[in-house]
Structures are given as structure tokens and as C-alpha cells.
Design goal:
Layout lengths: L12 H11 L8 E5 L5 H11 L7 E6 L2 H16 L8 E6 L14 E4 L3 H21 L6 E6 L10 E6 L7 E9 L3 H6 L4
Parallel strand pairs: 1-2, 1-4, 2-3, 4-5
Antiparallel strand pairs: 5-7, 6-7
Length: 196
């Protein structure tokens, strides 16, 4: 298990909006955004909807969910978002029912990752992310760093580039963290990346 399993642990919409508004400059039009453990697809839908009004935002989104029922729910929610016009047709959103640790071919071209995972999930995913960024930079040495956004839990022993505290309606007074990381093939570049 990589991600929290209960429906009540779904990422609040306010957190997603905060991530987009705070780090909108981080996204490029050719980015491929991947949500590992996408649940009901809310991250994919909200960010894909945001990209429809911003030419600089990504137009390709990929979600992976190991639970077949949740993956089906995400697929249906994405289809409804297309049908309602919330996501325009030129924005590509796909959902796969797959084990993210095994199905790395589904997201090997991703340039932005959203990870709302338990600590064990982050520990399992980190070597995979490093392998992806190393392979991407081997193909294109001028490539940007791999951008990773985690919610609630930081990447173990890694320096973040930015951190935001998000307030949520269902828990007044509480603020939950979002972390942004830049991953490079060379660990020294990560340690040299500024942290606010």
C-alpha cells in the first residue's frame, strides 16, 4: 500500500487550489503531470480544469490507482468532467488501474508528480523517481528537474524547494503542508537547490 485508503483521506479541493496558485510558475505547457494513487481523480480534474484557462499549464495528466473500484470512479469522474466542459477536449487525462511500483512505463515521461502517500509509499517511490529523472536527463541534458509535490508527508531526508501550509474547511485552525521538490540526477544539485 502506497497511499491512504479511506475515502475521507482524499485531498481537499482547497489544497489542490493552493498548489496550483502557489506554484503555477512551476508548470510548463509540455509538462506531463502524474498523480500516483489518484483515488477518485480529483487532482487530475482540478488541475486539468485549471490548465484550460492558462496556456502555460500542462495539457497531459496521468493518474494511477491500484484499487479497481477507485480507478473506475476516477475514470467516470474524468468522463463527466469532459462531458460538462470542465475539462476541454484538447487536455488529455488518462487513468490507469495499476500498481505504480510495477507499472513505471505508464509515467516514465512525467515531469510533475503529485504524491499524497504514506511514508512507506514515499520511500518506495523515491528510487523510482530518481531513476526516471536520470533516464530523462540522459536523453536530454538540458531538461528541467523533475518536480514533485507531496501532501502531508515530506520526502524522507530530502530538501524541499518550497512549502505551503493549507487551511481546510473541515478542520478549522488546522493547516496541512504541501511540499515542492526539484529532483536531479545528481544529488548535489538537489542539495544546492534553494529552500525557503
Amino acid at each position: 500500500m502506497l497511499a491512504p485508503r479511506k475515502t475521507l483521506w482524499s485531498t481537499p479541493d482547497l489544497v489542490l487550489a493552493e498548489a496550483v496558485s502557489s506554484w503555477i510558475g512551476e508548470f510548463q505547457a509540455n509538462d506531463v503531470v502524474c498523480d500516483i494513487g489518484c483515488g477518485d481523480g480529483r487532482v487530475l480534474i482540478q488541475w486539468a480544469s485549471s490548465s484550460s484557462s492558462q496556456q502555460s499549464l500542462p495539457i497531459t495528466f496521468v493518474g494511477l490507482e491500484i484499487d479497481e473500484c477507485r480507478a473506475q470512479e476516477a475514470h467516470e469522474n474524468v468522463q463527466q468532467a469532459y462531458e460538462s466542459g470542465r475539462i476541454p477536449r484538447h487536455v488529455k487525462v488518462t487513468v490507469h488501474c495499476a500498481n505504480a511500483v510495477q507499472a513505471t512505463h505508464l509515467y516514465k515521461d512525467a515531469t510533475v508528480f503529485f504524491l499524497y502517500l504514506i511514508p512507506r509509499g514515499l520511500r518506495l517511490m523515491y528510487p523510482i523517481l530518481k531513476q526516471i529523472v536520470t533516464q530523462q536527463h540522459a536523453r536530454d541534458t538540458k531538461r528541467q528537474p523533475l518536480k514533485v509535490i507531496t501532501y502531508m508527508t515530506p520526502l524522507p531526508n530530502k530538501i524541499y524547494v518550497a512549502k505551503e501550509e493549507c487551511c481546510v474547511d473541515h478542520q478549522p485552525g488546522a493547516a496541512w503542508p504541501l511540499y515542492l521538490y526539484h529532483l536531479y540526477p545528481d544529488a548535489k544539485q538537489e542539495s544546492d537547490d534553494p529552500c525557503d
